[in-house]
Amino acid sequence: MKIRLAEIAHARSGDKADWVDFGLFAWNPAGYAVLEREVTAETVAAHFAPWMPGRVDCWPLPNILAIKLVLHDALQGGGARNLRLDNLGKAMAGALLRMTIELDENELAASRAPRVGWWPEPSSPTP
Amino acid sequence: MTKTVRIGSGLGFYGDSWEPVLASIQRGGVRYICSDHLAELTLAILQKDRQRDAALGYARDVVPMLVRLWPAMRERGVRFICNAGGLNPEGAAHALRVAFGTKSWKARIAVVTGDDVLPRLAAGGSGFTHLFNGAAVDTVRERLVFANAYLGARPIVDALAQGADIVITGRVADAALFLAPLVHELGWKLEGARDASDCNKLAQGLAVGHLLECSGQGSGGNFGSLQAWQAIPDLAHIGYPIAEVGDDGAAVITKAPGTGGRINFDTVRQQLLYEVHDPHAYLSPDVVLDMSTSTLSDLGDDRVRMTGASGRPRPEQLKVVAGFHDGHKAEVTWGFSWPDAWAKAQTAIAMVKSQLADRKVPHDELFVEYPGLSSAHGAMSPPAADLAELNEVWVRLVLRTHEKSAADGFGRLFPWMGLSGPAYTCGFHGLHNSGELLGIWPTLIDRASVEPNVRTEIIET
What we know:
A: alpha+beta, two-stranded antiparallel ribbon, 4 helices, B: alpha+beta
């Protein structure tokens, strides 16, 4: 089945000069295994290509169940000359979480719960 | 016997709130507050201030912030380190001395200078190529407006050794502001760190600094997710992160009791990777950090233990951030409502383009985006289900030009279309909204040409 990354991962983006960087995080080890398989420099570059066709660097970080990504040529040369409202690419992590990935139903269930971090009731989010 | 020190996050940028800092001082048991006021863009803002008034060029919020915090700091012996000096650390210290003087407050203020390397880049000669694309600095040399080297922890450590209550620096690396009190308190080896044991401690300290340098973004602010962000409690009263660091480098990240926000595995690791490129080689002036060996253990109750960072000896060169004039922009936002909102917006854009051509307005680009529809994710936004039925469309038109007069005159192309353009508009916004654009030029410089000029001066108020 196909889902969006947002269903099984969370993310933050930031800027340095003309690069936007992303931290992409699985909720647990099962989700990380899916990310490592589905999220590569090639698949992320293909995802952003209609909008920001820049080179992508990718580093898997199994120690914190994360994928580090950097998208080049993403800010019209840099935040201080970028004409977009989102001149620093802060909203671009959301665009990453739109990415479609392929997994089976068991993987989906295992990727969503349980979560590693401390999310106490009653404020615990419902996935 | 393990020695520990508690350090707290100050501001995360020029304009941040300092009430959470007060909570960390009053209830968080911190000995130091380290405050980062400088993003890449901030130096560009400060440069404009300095052009208007040579006494400015620093992050001016440092004065009201320290007036607010000092009574609580003095009572508890808390010391304060910040890079709010920006392009003019002496100016910041002078303003602070005046403010403290009117209240008869006595403080030892240390001022760190020596990061300004603009004369070196402006002088000509080879070197200073663009760090990312290798371009020659000659292409921007005449247009440079500032150039500052990222200094490391050393001058701050010296200032603390001289008993400074408040340290004001210019362009010190963000995380080095936090590493400095750890080196000072825990007796870590700094310049001479070569072996793994010494480098790993510095790497832990750098990782701690990196987690704390963005204030609330390290404690649940901006937590980016589908739905889970709603579970971050009480962001309105967020507590900024606090680190308790042992002399072996092991750290616990937490926050003051009774504050909002969340410290957990998820919020901490989102910040750990923020604005990092190669996580195996996060460069700083003091150590090279490898995060791939880091362990984050969620202890619950807003406490996360961080251990295991690997360090390698510091790089031979320092990073420089320089800015250069890169043209002008002007922007107007214009709204259109149903019926035919989308079609009318397209006609309006064509009218603007027609005028630019008729008047031969010099420009490089007319950038168009649609706030509320696709400005955040551009071509990756889902297609509007039925553009013809949209209730309203906002168009943001931005002119990029190298002629200031073209930018200043852009707004004058619009008002007449209020009566002679498409109907049912929601008005123009930003008819006088023009400004300067700056390019950022990242490059490297040899330590030996910077560090001998770094000075730490103590001022008594």
